[in-house]
Write a structure and sequence with these properties.
About 25% of the residues lie in helices and about 40% in strands. It contains three helices and six strands. The chain starts with 6 loop residues before the first strand and ends in an 8-residue tail after the last helix.
Length: about 150
């Protein structure tokens, strides 16, 4: 089911998705919080293709990734039934953190941009280093862009 996880183009992950009624307001415009859901879905599928099994990481190593902060810029609205693409790039890999730049687009038109900072932590909410094997896989997808 790799198609459901999107594709990599160079070091950028692309996940297509359609806007459904439940993601819009009464006027058919995407509700602002829905963009966070779109971005989360894309980051999950991006890391899945890298080989990050979040359930296994949690169950076997007591580690998980959580959003520490997010900057979001709303440029143009998406609407009911639009076909969107969420583009995601890993731009920073720290000891216990990773940063992802994301863009939600309709065709070539950029609608929303996000900078999401994630932290690796234990279930007790203590920061933890990203395991070496996962770090090695993530390093292969790191872009040289700055935040």
């Amino acid at each position: 089911m790799t198609e459901m996880s999107g594709i990599w183009k160079d070091r950028e992950h692309h996940l297509p998705m359609r806007v459904y009624y439940a993601e819009t307001d009464a006027g058919g415009v995407v509700y602002h919080a829905s963009y966070l859901n779109f971005a989360e879905r894309a980051r999950t599928e991006m890391t899945r293709l890298i080989g990050l099994d979040q359930v296994k990481l949690r169950d076997e190593a007591d580690l998980l990734f959580a959003v520490r902060s997010c900057e979001i810029d709303f440029l143009r609205p998406a609407r009911l039934d639009d076909l969107l693409t969420v583009r995601s790039k890993l731009v920073h890999l720290g000891g216990a953190s990773l940063h992802v730049v994301q863009s939600i687009q309709r065709g070539d038109e950029e609608l929303v941009t996000l900078l999401v900072r994630l932290v690796c932590m234990t279930s007790a909410a203590k920061a933890a280093r990203i395991p070496h094997d996962l770090r090695d896989r993530l390093q292969n997808y790191l872009t040289r862009e700055t935040e």
